[in-house]
Amino acid sequence: MTSRAETMIERVELNGSGRLPPATTLSAASGLAWALIAWLVGYRAFGHQIWGGIVIAPLIGILIARLSSPLREKPRWVQIVGSLFFLYVAASCFALGMAILSPVHAPRGVRMSALLMQSVLAVLWGLTFGGYALVLWPLSYLNHRLVWQGGAGQLPVAPELRTSSAAIRTLAVRIMAVAVAAYVAWALLQTARLSSSPMPWWVVTDLMSWSRWLVLGIIVWLSAPLLAFGATFAADSEERSTSTYRQLAGVVGFAVFLYPGLSFAADLIVIVIKVSLVQSWATEGTVLWAPYYYRNVFRMCVPWFVVGAALMGMARAVRRSRT
Predict the structure, then answer these.
(1) Residue span of the structural domain in which 53 resides
(2) Domains contained in the chain, number
């Protein structure tokens, strides 16, 4: 017992006044990123029940990192197979978290054991037969490699991400250019349908969906000075670029937090333009005055806000733990 206690004390001293090890911080951050992926994939299927898994996502990330740590010294093929195994373990843990909220939505009289089994089977079924496992498997392997390198202190130099107004406007121009080029290519592919379809050309070519990216780029370009200030503040740096993973996490968190708001603004502008052009304010335009519309939009944006704020908070917490 004494030697174990001394070992724990040494670890605390090495971490600097109880500071979380890099691997633990990376694991919690990766758990938040996986929570956002899970929400994007599973919200339509599970609804608000998915919040139970999102809440405990950082803990799942830390748990999986601890359980998978022995794979760090194993051959590459063992790591690849192990990353698939732990992807399913993490999904099962996420399903157990979802089951916490199940009694709120499930009929009365349903046992907790049945809710647990139902949630786990539903998540694993969708992961396997929905084809998501094939897409998420490589991401799981790369995530494990990153956490293992962080635990061994072998992380490569953090990529530099510029947060100046000029860099953000360059990004905005690229978004607009890609949006226009992609729409032109898509419209050319739909030329055969244009002559045979009774619908207007802008419906056939899905102009509204593509133009929202163009409008988003315009919004980003116009608000570049404000975005640059916010990104620099989120990075907690005096420089207009990132030099550490902590700063990078802050900027990524800021982008995740802000994206749904900017995207909704772009959607709203496109809808207003479309309704005005076709003069359908009396029919389609009425939804813009309905409170439920904005409540639903806010609910859809909340996971982005939570993950973004958590990443920025973690970046700040790491900064304070090192001072």
Answers:
(1) 2-151
(2) 2
| Residues whose CB is less than 8 angstroms from the CB of residue 148 and which lie 6 or more positions away in sequence, other chains included | 23, 69, 71, 72
User: Is the CB of residue 62 less than 8 Å from the CB of residue 27?
Assistant: yes
Other residues' Cβ atoms within 10 Å of the Cβ of residue 186: 14
Does 156 fall in a domain? no
Buried/exposed 77-105: b ≥16 CB within 10 Å, e otherwise: eebbebbbebbeebbbbbbbbbbbbbeee
Q: Which of residues 101, 121, 151 is at a domain's end? A: 151
pLDDT, tens only, 110-130: 577 777 888 888 888 988 888
Beta bridge partners of 162: 241
Torsion of CA 67, 71, 73, 78, to 10 degrees: 170
* 8 A C-beta contact, residue 147 and residue 20: no
Residues 185 and 264 in one domain: yes
Distance CA 281, CA 271 (A): 10
Cα 105 to Cα 113: distance, rounded to the nearest angstrom: 15
Largest CA distance in the chain: 82
| DSSP H helices in 51-111 | 51-55, 57-68, 76-105
Highest average pLDDT, of 11-15, 88-92, 185-189, comes from: 88-92
